[in-house]
Amino acid sequence: MDWIFKDLAASVPQIRHVVLLSADGLRMAEYATDPDNSDPHTAEYLAATCASLQSLAAAVGEMFPHGDGKMRMVVIEVSGGFLYLMAAGARAYLAVMADHGVDAGLLAQCMRDLVARIGEHLTSPPRMTGSPHA
């Protein structure tokens, strides 16, 4: 996945971190634009935080009577930049952290294009509970 995420970061200046996560908050893949200045726990923390965020967004989606209730995209702007979270595939999400100054429309469009191109590969299989031989 590195080359795909690296391509996304090259297409949109100001991206800091890209993480593919499962619905339950596990980091499945990541790319940091500056690995030398990246905390090794950033991807895990981002994945866990985004899992909570997608759950909250799904709850909000249920309040809209004419939709399917599924979270498609969440954008958070804070004083330091942006966090984009997008549904990427079955039980998988794409998270991107970007600095202020990012072209927000370009980033959203590039994320949509990426998911449309390779969304079926951006999935997380269901987790098995218990012993598979039980």
Record the SSE blueprint.
Elements: H1 2-11, E1 15-22, E2 27-32, H2 42-61, E3 73-78, E4 81-89, E5 92-99, H3 104-118
Antiparallel strand pairs: 1-2, 1-5, 3-4, 4-5
Domain Roadblock/LAMTOR2: 2-98
Pfam families: Robl_LC7 (PF03259)
Organism: Streptomyces humicola
What quaternary form is this?
A: single chain
> What is the overall shape?
globular
Strand content of the residues, in percent? 25-35%
**In the CATH hierarchy, what is the architecture at level 2?**
2-Layer Sandwich
Number of strands: 5
Q: Write down the CATH class.
A: Alpha Beta
- Strand order of the biggest β-sheet: 2-1-5-4-3
Q: Total helix count? A: 3
Q: What's the gyration radius in Å?
A: 15 Å
Low-confidence stretches: none
CATH superfamily: Dynein light chain 2a, cytoplasmic
SSE arrangement, N to C: HEEHEEEH
Instruction: Tell me the count of domains.
Output: 1
The end-to-end distance, rounded to whole angstroms, is: 34 Å
Mean pLDDT: 86
